[in-house]
Amino acid sequence: MRAAISLGFVRPPALALFLLPLSAVVSHAQTDTSFEGKTITRIDFDPPSQPLTTKELQSRISVHPGLPLHIADVRTSIQDLYRTGRYSDISVAVEPDGGGAALRIQTEFNYFISGVNVSGESEPPNKGQITAAAKLELGALFTDDQMEQAQKNVEELLRANGFYSASVEVHVDRTPATQEANVYFFLRTGERARFDGVEFLGQFNVSPQRLIRATDWRRRFLFITFPGWREMTKSRLQRGIGEVQETLQKDNRPLASAALEELKFHPETNRVTPVLNIDMGPIVQVKVTGANVSAHQLRQLIPIYQERAIDRGLLLEGQQNLLNYFQSQGYFDALVDFVQSEPQPGHSLIDYSVSLGARHKLVQISINGNHYFDTETLRDRLSITKASFPRYPWGRFSQKMLERDRNNIEDLYRANGFRDVKVETPPPIDSYKGIPGHLAVAFKIQEGPQWLVNKLDLEGVSESDALLLRPLLQSIPGQPFSDATVGADRDAVLTHYFNEGYPDARFDWAQTSGPTPTSVNLRYTIDAGKRLYARNVLVRGLNATRPSLVASQILLRSGDPISQSKIVNTQQRLYELSIFSRAQTAIQNPDGEEDSKNLLFHVDEASKWSLNGGIGAQLGRIGGGTTTFDSPAGATTFTPRLSAGVTRLNVFGLAHTVGVQTLFSTIEQRVLTTYSIPQFMGNDKLLLSVSGLFDDSNDIRTFTAHRVEGSVQLSQRLSRANTFQYRYSYRRVTIPADTLKIEPELIPLFSQPDRAGILGFSFINDERDNPVDSTHGFLNTVDVGWAGRQLGSATTYSRLQFSNSTYHRIGRNLVFARAFRFGYLQRYAGGVAVPPGTPSWEEVPLAERFFSGGASTNRAFPENQAGPRDLETGFPLGGNAYLFTSEELRFPLYGDNLGGVFFHDMGNVYSSITAINLRFWQLNRQDFDYAVHSFGFGVRYRTPIGPIRVDLSLSPDSPRFVGFSGTRDQLLSGTGTPNVPQRINIFQFHFSLGQTF
Fold it and tell me: What is the pLDDT of residue 921?
């Protein structure tokens, strides 16, 4: 016989699953006292495979084979199993088994969301927006009730973006072994609805045509409007309503509003008509008397324009903003008051009256009474600034800034144990040193006693843990005591335990008086809680990506403590593969009481294809000079540039990338193909890339080069600052004879194709604080290459290039930057067969020589105009060595974004390494082996992508040379005028992006 005892439990509601008392879940209990106290012979689970380990099951239930059966123990066991969060229903049946009782525990599992997947074209909204709208939290408990609401949310989002006929199908894949519920949304969006007009309700004094233009819902290209309407999207709808409101708020109506009253959908035409309710609000005129403020600035300062409301609080805020604005302009005694009136119904006048007073210049900021901190340390925390020309001609000062600086100094002292510190700011001194308008500000500091930690006790931790924790703490004996240091200790302790797998760690502290009046004894009480381990590490969302690639990035394994730092680092490593648009992580069953939990990573793969494009220009030098035969000394040029490219991500599912990038301009046409393999051979510090280049360029005015090149490079990142690069390149460069502008006898020789196979090595040591705009640190690069016949090269030569840049901050505002660049080219064999008597340096193929000079090396030259020149035409021929040095003094010029620089460049491209010298003067018009200097001034404007750079240089020793007057045909026929004196213009102008070095 079976089922003498049967206990059944109703599935608890999801929100109370883990806290429900036993009395709320027991539905019935049929007992037979004959089984009470019987020996339990066996316990069977149905299904046999349970989500908890055998060890955890045994610890969760109070009934075991060989023990007497008690109904109370059965109920306790079921309650403990429920607390794990793994079960939605549990029932127990008892049947006789010989002289004892056999238990059969039947369970139904909970499922947890392991991913939300979206298929179907809908953008916008994109997949991330759809996932967010579903409101299904990764790792959380899954219930069927959630799906109906999630489906409605997604459908509502699609309708809001114009998909009125969209249908959404939902499918859930359940995996009993890991209790996962993977949710799939299948979208059939249909055609997106279009606008077909707009209706306006209410009274308004703006023409409907003007409001329709403001919406930008009509079809248009650039500034041309075409018949028809654009597709409706949520962002386009909201943006259009906002533009209508901006239009209405012009003409002194800051309270005007446009609200969406209704969206009329016409199913027969799949069109939408928005209905906007317009409220013009009163005419509000804001005047400022006694001072000049632009309309744009006024809208920024008076908050009624942002809040679209008028109340006294906002008007007072505007008063304070105006006061701070005028004080920042040097009117430190300015007074601002306002009057609000209604001259007629529907009109509101707000008149801010300003009394500027005399304009002041903040010339002195003194700090007195400080002993613990030096004055410069405190000055670094001030926002008020002394006047300095031209950056801050009046200084920066306002009462609000002064108060904030006073608080900052007090907070700094309190954080270092000075609990009773007081910082006073007496009224600023006018007419400082008897000069009217000069202002002096003082900070008077009363530090008071410093409170120190006398003793720190750690409770609740083992001695081994204490040894790990003490180096992390700030409040150690002898150090300052403050709430800030205790807070920092709390964060350090909890972070340590979170990273060791203790998610419920707690920290408490108490203080008692120390042996002196200004000392304290601290006691930190730490409760680590229960350590949580990873049962399984689950990766979901992979379609094209190979699981082994992702597994190699995950720093946690089954059985490891769940470390928050390892989870975050894993997410970062996944993002660094550049193939995932999103990488989420969650702990499955977060509220359940378990010894170990499944750790879930869900990734969304990025689009495989990406396109890019850009339009730009390059501006050459200013200054004319005497130039002939297509300007051998360079000319003012404006070169438009157009770039486009396509990239394929995640090739073969291994995070490989293949791309094609093109560049078209009047001086260069380029096609570059690349194939990149990150984490080569499973090493995240190795990057292998293979590239092919097709390039036609005439940026060197002497010739046009047709270049075909293939290369393979392995980059090895040793640390954050140090990188090695190993490469092999093979290229073939041809120079059409009709593009060479050199001595006719050499044209047949130097137009021969050049083959170069080069084995190279580079080392990069980058210790700069900011590669885009460095203020301290240094950068070293070394590049070595060898071209030999064994590598396919027609000429055997070696190449060495070295650069060193350093950056030093001087005071608060100045940066001194310097750079040194050296290059050396040594030929051993091969090359062109030059006539007897030709300098040996010319035996290196023309395309392999060093061409330099310009915006990034020596600003005395136009681009690539340094070094030896053809003695008949005057065009540059390149050299076998170069040496450049540059010094820059960088300083703020005006405000926070505009800076200036004084610079000096020196150096040249030399015919050979033995010809390098620092001679200032040129011996004759055939001498180019000397140091050319340039002195100048530049302007830097800070942007998010780097500073925009404009440099103007003066070169007192710019090279003189002789050229040819006539045409190319005359040059070849021996006619025309030779030996025409020329010179590179002493003034050069350079415009580019980024610092010089």
Answer: 94
| Domain at 5-109: CATH code | 3.10.20.310
Question: Stretch 371-399: mean pLDDT, rounded?
Answer: 89
- The string of pLDDT tens digits covering residues 278-337 is 998 888 989 999 999 988 889 899 998 888 888 899 999 999 999 988 988 888 888 999
The domain defined by 361-446 folds into Ubiquitin-like (UB roll) (3.10.20)
> Ramachandran region of residue 837, left (φ > 0), alpha (ψ -120 to 50) or beta?
left
Look up residue 525 and give its DSSP letter. E
Residue 813: the pLDDT is 85
Span between the terminal Cα atoms of the chain, in Å? 91
Position 986 pLDDT exceeds 70: yes
Q: Which of 3-7, 100-104, 776-780 has the lowest mean pLDDT?
A: 3-7
User: Which residue ranges does the chain devote to CATH 3.10.20.310?
Assistant: 5-109, 111-188, 194-279, 283-355, 361-446, 452-527, 533-605
CATH of region 533-605, choose from 2.60.34.10, 3.60.40.10, 3.40.630.30, 3.10.20.310 = 3.10.20.310
Please list, in sequence order, all residues whose beta carbon lies within 8 angstroms of the beta carbon of residue 449, skipping any fewer than 6 positions away: 418, 420, 517, 518
Is residue 44 helix, strand or coil? strand
* CA separation for the pair 104, 48 (Å, rounded): 10
> What integer is the mean pLDDT of 919-934?
96
Q: What is the mean pLDDT of residues 933-957?
A: 92
**What's the pLDDT score for residue 10?**
37
Main-chain phi, psi angles of 623, to 5 degrees: 100, 140
**pLDDT for the residue numbered 452:** 96
Cβ atoms 374, 353 nearer than 8 A:
no
> 452-527 has which fold?
Ubiquitin-like (UB roll) (3.10.20)
194-279: CATH topology:
Ubiquitin-like (UB roll) (3.10.20)
For every residue of 797-817, DSSP letters joined together read EEEEEEEEEEEEEETTTEEEE
Question: Pairing relation of β-strands 199-201 and 335-341?
Answer: unpaired
pLDDT over threshold 90, residue 555? yes
- Mean pLDDT in the chain? 89
Closest C-alpha among 246, 150, 237 to residue 194: 237
Residue 1: predicted pLDDT: 35
Helix axes 144-160, 127-134, angle to 10 degrees: 140
Nearest CA to 883 out of 822, 837, 939, 942 is that of: 822
Residue from 884, 874, 827 nearest 852 by CA = 884
Residues 6+ apart with CB under 8 A from 525: 459, 460, 507, 508, 509, 510
CA 602, CA 115: separation in Å to the nearest integer?
Answer: 6
Classify domain 612-993 at the CATH topology level: Porin (2.40.160)
Q: Which residues contact 132 (CB under 8 A, 6 or more apart)?
A: none
Q: Which residues of 329-352 are buried (b: 16+ CB within 10 A; e: fewer)?
A: bbbbebebebeeeeeeeeebbbeb
What stretch(es) of the chain map to CATH 2.40.160.50?
Answer: 612-993
Domain 283-355: state its class: alpha beta
What would you report as the CA-atom Rg of the chain, rounded to the nearest whole angstrom?
39
Q: What are the distances in angstroms from CA 558 to CA 84, 180, 564, 596?
A: 19, 17, 15, 9
Task: Tell me which amino acid residue 964 is.
Answer: F
Q: What backbone phi and psi angles, to 5 degrees, belong to 303?
A: -70, -10
Q: What is the DSSP string of 539-606?
A: EE--SSS-HHHHHTT----TTSB--HHHHHHHHHHHHHTT-EEEEEEEESSTTS--SEEEEEEEEEEP
Asked if pLDDT for residue 420 goes beyond 80, the answer is yes
**CA atoms of 221 and 227, how far apart (whole Å):** 11
Give the CATH class of 111-188: alpha beta
Q: In this structure, how many other beta carbons lie within 10 angstroms of the beta carbon of residue 313?
A: 11
CA distance 272 to 164: 10
